[in-house]
Amino acid sequence: MKPIGHKMILASAGSGKTYALTNRFVQLLAHGAPPERIVALTFTRKAAGEFFDEILNKLARAARDPQEAARLAKDIGEPQLGAADFLAMLRTIVGAMHRLALGTLDSFFAKVVRAFPLELGLGGDFEILQEHGVQLERQRVLRQLFARTGVELYDAQKEFIEAFKRATFGAEEKRLSARLDRFINEHQNIYLNSPDGKAWGNPKRIWPEGCAWLSKNGSVRGAAEVVRRWAAGAGASEKQRKRWDDFLESHEAWKPGAELADPMKYLLPKALEAWVTLGEEPVELVVERKKQVLPPEIGAALKVLVRAVFAGELTRRLEMTQGIHTVLRGYEAFYNDLVRRAGKLTFADVQRLLMPETGAPRLTAGGRAEDGRLFVDWRLDAKYDHWLLDEFQDTSPAQWSVLRNLIDEAVQDPEGRRSLFYVGDVKQAIYAWRGGDPRLFREIFDHYNAVAPGTIEEGRLDQSWRSGPAIVSVVNRVFGDAAVLARLVPGPTADRWTREWRDHESAKPKLGGHVAWLHGDDDEARAALTVRLLSEIEPLERGLSVAVLVQSNDAATWLADYLRREGGLPAVAASDLHVCTDNPLTTAVLALLQAAAYPGDRFAWEHVRLTPLAGVVAAAGEGGADGLTRAVLHQVHEDGFARTVETWLRRLEPVLAADDAFSRERARQLTEAAQRFDETGSRDVAEFVQFAERHVVRDAETAAVVRVTTIHKSKGLGFDVVVLPDLEGTALATRRRDGLAVQRTPEREVEWVLDMPPTLFHENDPVLSAHVDEAKADAAYEKLCLFYVALTRAKRAMYLITKPVGEKSTSDNFPRLLTETLGTAGLAGAVRIGAWTGEVFFSEGDAAWFQAIAHQNSAGADAAAGPSELATLSGVVAAKRHPVRTPSGTKVDVVTGAALFGATSSGAANFGTAVHRALAAVEWGGVTPELLAVWKTAGLVETVVAEAGACLEARGLAEVFARRSGGEVWRERMFEIVIDGAWITGVFDRVVLVRDAAGKVVEATVYDFKTDRTTAEQAVQVTERYAGQMGIYRRAAARLAGLPEARVRCVLVLTTLRGAVEVAGGGAD
Amino acid sequence: MPLPRLQILPWNQPLVHAVTGWLARGWNGEGPLDLADTLVVVPTSQAGRRLREALAACAAHKGQAVFPPRVRMPDQLTSPDAPAVGAAVAASRAELLLAWTETLRDADLDTVREVFPLDPPERSFAWAVRLAREFIRLQTTLAENGLRMADVAERAGEDFPESARWRQLGALETACDAALAAHGLRDPQAMKIAFAEAPALPEGVRRIVVAGTPDPLPLALRVLAAHAAAGVPVEVLASGPADDALFDGWGRPVAVAWATRLFSPVDFEQRVRLCADPAAQAGAIVSCVLGYAGPGGRLAVGVADAEVLPSLENGLARAGVPAFNPDGRPLRGEALHTLLTALSELAGREPTFASVAALLRCPDVLAWLGGDSARLLAALDDLHAEHLPPTLAAARAQVSDAGLAKAIESVVRLRALLLVGVFPDNVRTVLTEIFKEHRFDQTRPEDARAIETAQVWATVLTELEAAVRRFQGLVASDVWELALRALGDSPRFDEKPDGAVELQGWLELLWDDVPHLVVAGMNDGRVPEAVVGDAFLPEGLRERLGLKTNAARFARDAYLLHALAAFRTDGRGRLDLLFGKTSAAGDPLRPSRLLMQCADADLPARVAFLFGHAEAARPSPAWRRAWKLKPRADAKIERLSVTAFRDYLKCPFRFYLKHGLRMQAVDPHKAELDAMDFGTLCHAALEAMGQPDSPVRDCTDAAVLRGFLLEELERTARALYGEQPVLPLVVQLESARQRLAQVAEIQAQLRAEGWVIERSEWKFEIDLGGLPVRGKIDRIDRNELTGAVRVIDYKTSDKPVNPADAHVREPRRTENVEALPEFARVFSGGEEAIWTDLQLPLYREAVAVEFGHAVECGYFNLPKAAGETGVQVWDGYDADVQAAAMRCARGVAAAVQARRFWPPAELPASANDDFAGLFHEGAEASVEWTQEGDA
Ligand code: SF4
């Protein structure tokens, strides 16, 4: 069979990426590849699930329908295949389902690590920490760290403190823990990617050629004096003199890290502008609108002052960066000890274990073991021949470095039996902040093709199967205008974008639809307009899907609620909801827990009193603080948080309005959160409350709803109608302000890390400004990607709502791009959408498009919505279930704490058991050598033998063991019986039966051995205590022996007293 | 080998009935049903229970009872009922763990590089014990087919790529065996294997019946074969169609036969259901359970995926339906386990305060201490908030509350008991002490549960005691760790509540006879169970070693599915199968492959059905307020502090919550000084400096002043926070030191300029329209050269505060200024402004009596930045400002007296609002305020 070849596909939005991927999978199957040898990796679990579903559904369709089969056969380039072939493939893949390597990169890596824990330096198996687990662990680590005291601080911790002070120069010091938490959150990833301190705040790395600002400087004091003297004379105006004086004064007062005072902000840029000639020749500066000439010696003195400021600020930043590194290293060491070593890893940890630069052995699927490579094929029972990588633009260099070896083998397979296929869209690279690097796409292609030209074939998909012509036309206009882009974004960004840009084409030219750009001044107005549009279009009623896309989670939550409240629309925020704290019901229950565990918390107490919970507490009889504390703590410790929370919520149930579905849903969600927390095994109320406060859930995804979600989360999805009311924002080329600047080599290794100084400083340093420019270009690229994603979600209609862009506006943000590409600023005219008429900036397509789509009849929708209940059976005979009683369960027994926990507790039980065993060995009579031999073989200890022997010899027990004529003994005999409808399982210690001459049992005596210490006075009590138990023995023995109960005697044998007590009863029958 | 006799019982009736009937065949009901000479092998203990119950019921039909057979599970066949005397003793789990731990820690890793290519991160006890567990698991799996580690390399065959690794594992195993032998112990798996060579039959057993056990251990079969060879009749019962080709001689489903058998009930699509997630599966089951008035005996639930269990249990609890899980649940999280965990920390080197607090929150400890628990815990929180004690010792040193002091002494006593004795006697002593007053009553379910847990604990201790005696060199914390883990992993078996719904695992279901069975979690990987990827025993090796493979599991589970469906047909029963689309964590799941065992022609439709969309959940309901908060309006406010004015001006309602209802939160995670603590700490030193008897009142030498202030700081800090403050405090104290050092410079300068501290911490009370207002002025300075007087307040915020900015603010952009009370508004410099604070004006008013009206006022800022330390006077403060301020103050006082606390201010999200958590969607909307007297 011909080799299948390697392929890279650049797929534009909606161009059938999944279609191409699933086809590739089918094509591989058609080539005879066993499904378990195909690795298909995606980024999200959801995508993985959908991918698999789609393969199966595709094969099922083709297997069922010859036309579908023919189409699929043609699509995969194997026209000879028919329905039967696809059915066979379907059977194959179903049979191999459990062995498929089809999932997320994370889970694939975890599977590999799990197969090689010792090879990768782990101590054994591990668990993957989920998001909430990570948070809890971090809190615990910090708490442990903080509980250390000054005296026992290790040197490392003292260093930690010093470093933290250095790292947070000038920042708030009094909220150390909160700050540190945030601090670690922000910087930890950078540290983990570059743990080596040499990259952090190291001037040699940043300025290998040396940094002019940090070079030797003259005396600052002297220079200031020189400037002062010159400024005082030299025929300057009064205003100019004051400028210079103020400058010198603020220069003296300034400390690194402080904001530059206005006089500095005024003069520094002027000096920097003239930097080249300053001090070399007379330089003219305009100060207070008049020219001043600085002779060379004054220029030189000014240079000294400026350099001092730069040196001060840069040095401080370098120190801070080093400090940050030290803090992170300290924290990491602690975290490592407490969490990772205990076998709790995050997905990021797992990935790091596999990265070649950490020294891990390389993965491989074949070849020789000469270099300690890890053979995934043996341990994972899988030989991976074919690689399918989805959303490749989001792959990080780190992830690629792990996969590289395995994939290398496939690409370089001389016989071409193995293959690589990767697909994605560099225009949808919105996960750069997570490490995704769209440049890899081309680099890999170039790399392999440089070795052997034509190795990887390039494919392009630019036809949109999702969007109609109106949408596609707008997308082309907005994103395909190289000239406008070149104006609005940095040059490299525009180049990168334009290089891979191809105009899109709609594969559904007949699909009706509309794009309108509407006007809304603020959030409220835009939300109201959204409601209006949706109520005119009525997409849900027409069976159309609809989404409202925004830029942040908060915006999604707010807007979804607005749509529900103001518009009565079934809106769902596909964003994180703080379900335990966003409503009065669950906050009150949390307050109750807090008040109970921290009775001094007057806030929590009063909070409870402000709510109906107060009445519930009183009604439950836990009115007082003490009662509540005991009751709640008791319940938490006995049953966990889920049950505790559940109890109180149930008590609150009558308080809720009958139709308050919302609060009931929150109640359920709180219980679910508690259930999750209970899995940690913790019973710490404060920890639980904190957990609940941070617990978020996402609203369920459903079909017939208006989905309000972030653009990020909408990636990969398509909707008939899309509203975009949140497109404003900062300039496209804005560097991410948070976090440290990380400079990487072309190989993506971290070159240096620096806490970037403010603009004035980095602008005037060639190295730093190059870095910032690059970062801005990257940010602009990512922003373009984000808006590209936003504008390519719609199938039929899209409504953009923004503020008008002013003529003079200089903000190069997205509305500006719209203005420059779709038309000049200003209103284009009015448009009528349903009954609403409004002004628009732009409109294309048919504004009344939706009227051609009829309302769906609701009966059909209902049938689809309501799942049928699992039926119940009537009239069928139930299986017999008897309540269970054990004879010992019938005794009323009270144990003291001492008896339960004392040293003798288990000893006594063991002794008792052994004595039972010894006596069970006795058929009749006294201690014989044979009996002793039996006891010895049974391994009974001396004391037991002595005790049992004494019993046999005791006069008071003679009756028990005396041989009787016609007698028969049951020893340690088990029985099962149903008495009064209850099922009883028991063991007779000893029963002596007497038979008459005919062999019929005429009499039976049940002996029950009691080995607990009893005094003679207690004997009566004992018989009372065991009356119930003996009653059961009597009835059982009577039934088994075929006697009336009156003929059965019951005798308690008290071994320590060496006496027997008869238990009366048995007159009942 | 004489083969056992296989009997195929018809499967159109429940297995348990078929087996019971078979065992009772030929019994005429005269005399008890005596099966005492029979050993019956069943797959699980629950199956055994079912069988015994059915036998009892069977006998009861004829008015009789049963001498039951010996019921055993396959793995019980591989060890003798009673160990022979003199033979080596099987190592307990604890001993085995310790032997492995010792072996691993002592091993020369260079000799086992195939096992450990890299050095482990640390060869600690924790590392070794974790690995030991792994190795024991491995040994147990291998022993299922009578193998030990050492056998693997040879058994795996020629081309086995990891034979070197397994030889080294074998060497480690040998070393472990030797470590055990040194103490007269033997590896329990090795003993099982040896026993299987020449098994002994339990006394009195004459025949063996293997019943309904589709998946016995190979080693157990070896035992059975040996018995059969010795002439004991062995009969095997399997239920199914009467076709010999479907089972092997041991009643095991034949893989090829079952792997291809079609599962195509006519009503497939009514019986199989796709659910979105575990909660949806649970929901479907709960509503089904509710459909039965009392489900006892009619409905049982199978849970093939344990992940569904928590949702299901909670769902049933919420619906008020008792549920029973025969598998039991681990004791981790049981009250005793939590208590012991706290005790283990108490036994540590230096018990932390957190561990003391955790211990004191154990209900059993509270009960032991007696008295008012709420008061005790409140005192504990106060101690924490005021002194941040890091350790038990520090808490002991700082405690002032008598009740708490007593409690802490009790804890100290417990610690002493723990440290004095030897494990485990010390633990026993401590528990005996804690529970000495407690009487556990068997009849109370809660106590019965505690008794059971205590008994497990006793067993754990006994086992561990013996182990620790043999394998020495463990430190106390290691032993605690082992004990807690052993207890936590042990299961607890609840008693089954009458009429409860049983929630059973997949492998239990074969023996259930309820007519309606619902199985949740029918997802691939669970049913059929599939093991993919294993660090030691990948599928390829399992196959070579004759261990259980995925193919065998598939056949077993296919058989089980058919058997479950077989008798629940024709209206006599019903089998529902649920499977999830995603796991709780959101991982995609796939339906069981068994559900796709259909004719090829049906497969596309089946696939389309099984891989469809999960049924739509309903959209989330719109946000809605369950209730409004109803504050009582009668809380008294009889006086005001100067600082309270700020609160009122910020928001009158929050003012009421704070000063009327006195709502003040406890921060259980407080780990450092808050702003107030920090201020108090600095103030203490500053106050001492200004006292009339202060040696440095007139000092102009910054160094001396610094020395004084720092010493005062040190003294106060030590008094408040002890000798060993926690880590963040070290940082904060350092910050305080720097600030005070800077104060010394400024103070020296001020004195030199003629400023004398006239008063320090001067308390006053003034009357505003009948409402007393109290305050304390940090200091009043008089300049001996100019005679000027000024009132000064120390500010320890990080940034310097300008007095004017702190007292008035500009209106917010969206604010409706007209709605504010008249007194809160002020015109300054022609601009409208709003009062936010009245502290300095009130001070000034208070000192006027003595110092007249021309007094200056301002802040002494002690910010972080040294350069900004100093006195900042309120510029432009004049009589007009004072008059406006006092008008405002009187306005507030009058409003408070008139109890005008409504409406609340709607503060922006950025505001630092302690009460934000109370309000949802607006403060005013969240509260139903009834003015006193209105109601
Ligand atoms: S209930 Fe008892 S008597 Fe009836 S069939 Fe079952 S086992 Fe036999």
Describe this structure in words.
The complex is a heterodimer of chains A (1069) and B (935). Chain A has 40 helices and 33 strands. With 1069 residues, chain A is of the alpha/beta class. Chain A has an eight-stranded mixed beta sheet with strand order 17-20-16-21-24-15-26-25. In chain A, strands 3-2-10-11-1-12 form a six-stranded parallel beta sheet, with helices on both faces. In chain A, strands 27, 29, 30, 31, 32 and 33 form a six-stranded mixed beta sheet that branches. In chain A, a hairpin with a 2-residue loop joins strand 29 and strand 30. In chain A, 43% of the residues are buried. Chain B is of the alpha/beta class and 935 residues long. In chain B, strands 10-18-17-11-16-12 form a six-stranded parallel beta sheet. The longest helix of chain B has 26 residues. Chains A and B meet through helix 2, helix 4, helix 5, helix 6 and helix 7 of A and helix 2, strand 4, helix 4, helix 11 and helix 12 of B. The structure holds iron/sulfur cluster. Iron/sulfur cluster binds next to helix 1 and helix 2 of chain B. Iron/sulfur cluster (SF4) binds next to helix 1 and helix 2 of chain B.
Please state roughly what percent of the residues of chain A sit in beta strands, choosing from under 5%, 5-15%, 15-25%, 25-35%, 35-45% or over 45%.
Answer: 15-25%
Strand order of the largest sheet of chain A: 17-20-16-21-24-15-26-25
Q: What does the largest sheet of chain A look like?
A: 8 strands, mixed
The tally of helices of chain B reads: 33
Bound molecules: iron/sulfur cluster
The Cα radius of gyration of chain B reads 39 Å
**Net shape of chain A:** globular
Sum up the overall morphology of chain B in one term.
elongated
The strand line-up of the biggest sheet of chain B is: 10-18-17-11-16-12
Largest interface: A-B, 192 and 210 residues
Radius of gyration of chain A: 41 Å
Q: Let me know the number of strands of chain B.
A: 27
